[in-house]
UniProtKB/TrEMBL annotation:
Keywords: Cobalt, Metal-binding. GO terms for biological process: anaerobic cobalamin biosynthetic process. GO terms for molecular function: metal ion binding; sirohydrochlorin cobaltochelatase activity. This is Sirohydrochlorin cobaltochelatase. It holds the Pfam family CbiK. It comes from Marinifilum flexuosum. The keyword Metal-binding applies. InterPro entries: Anaerobic_Co-chelatase. The active site is at residue 174.
Length: 291
């Protein structure tokens, strides 16, 4: 009798352990958080919608949420009645909503200041009491050598038909005081393997337009196709690049005698470019067991 009692207690214990385990498993809730700088320009929606569509197709069974890193952009949108979460707000809500694992994908171009800030936020959320158990951050568009090769291929496919000996394509990157500004001239090197007629400049980093003008001249360029090297064709593309003001790149190039043409298309509008971010997302999803 004692033996039977012991045995049944033993089985009850095993059953209990198994039930707890099954219970834990069932409680796992895994999600994706897509994080972009953001934009206050409604015209940039197409770019974000394209990313959303492609990620949803890749992960049809996973809940996908969005956050913007720019405080200024979120403030402008809030005044218009549109509330977009910061990365910290989005992660706090996901913790409250029972998510145990979250793949956070950076939609930035370079691993610069905005990306670093996001990385710190994501790290801070790891192991938060009663919060999300595991979060991982996916690399921005340009990170490893492979990314630069793939992006150069993707952009060359888009622009090669426009090139000729007298026509250049000039990409406008944002630029940064962060050490990762080197990715802009670095990426230009990859593009140059495709054609000498590709140039990459920045609005507020290195190189500025002043440094590119003499190169356009010495290469015998007569016409410049301007296009953003940012996920969206937003504020910088519409004003600093293609605006009719004194200081825009378009105005300055025309003053210097170049013909100009504008391709007002953000990088995230090209499926092939979004594919690079999605590869980075897939890598962290694999680590988190998100399918
Ligand atoms: C830190 C800061 C310092 C500074 O620039 O002064 C900074 C830094 C960086 N911005 C980057 C990218 C972009 N910035 C914009 C736009 C704006 N950026 C602005 C401010 C600030 N930007 C300051 C923080 C203020 C804050 O926290 O809110 C706004 C608000 C005001 C203004 O610039 O005048 C204006 C809003 C326009 C609007 O209303 O919509 C766009 C889109 C666009 O052009 O519209 C993109 C392309 C995004 C993309 O590609 O998706 C990158 C490269 C990141 C990367 O892609 O890797 C870095 C540097 C880095 O991260 O190292
Ligand atoms: Co800016
Ligand atoms: Fe910015």
């Amino acid at each position: 009798m004692r033996r039977i009692l012991h045995l049944s207690i033993f089985f009850l214990l095993i059953l209990n352990v198994q039930m707890t385990y099954a219970h834990k498993k069932a409680e796992d809730k895994k999600g994706i958080l897509l994080v972009t700088f953001g934009s206050s320009y409604p015209e940039t929606r197409v770019a974000f919608e394209n990313i959303d569509k492609i990620v949803k197709a890749e992960f049809p069974n996973v809940e996908i949420r969005w956050a913007y890193t720019s405080k200024i952009v979120r403030k402008i949108l809030k005044k218009r009645g549109e509330n977009i979460d910061s990365p910290a707000e989005a992660l706090a809500k996901m913790g409250e909503d029972g998510f145990t694992h979250v793949a956070v994908q950076s939609l930035h171009i370079i691993p610069g200041e905005e990306y670093d800030n996001l990385k710190h936020t994501v790290e801070a959320f790891n192991g938060m009491p009663k919060g999300i158990k595991v979060t991982e951050i996916g690399a921005p568009l340009l990170f490893l050598d492979h990314d630069q090769m793939q992006l150069a291929d993707a952009l060359h496919q888009q622009f090669k038909s426009k090139l000729n000996s007298k026509t250049a394509v000039l990409f406008m990157g944002h630029g940064s005081h962060h050490q990762s500004n080197i990715y802009y001239p670095g990426f230009e090197y990859y593009l140059k393997q495709k054609s000498d007629q590709y140039f990459v400049g920045t609005v507020e980093g290195f190189p500025l337009l002043d440094a590119i003008l003499p190169q356009l001249k010495s290469n015998g360029i007569k016409k410049v196709i301007l296009t953003p090297f940012m996920s969206v064709a937003g504020d910088h593309a519409r004003n600093d690049m293609a605006g009719n003001e004194e200081d825009s790149w378009k105005t300055n190039l025309e003053k210097e005698g170049f013909k100009t043409e504008v391709a007002m298309i953000g990088l995230a509008e090209y499926d092939s470019v979004v594919g690079i971010w999605v590869e980075h997302l897939k890598a962290i999803c694999q680590e988190l067991g998100i399918r």
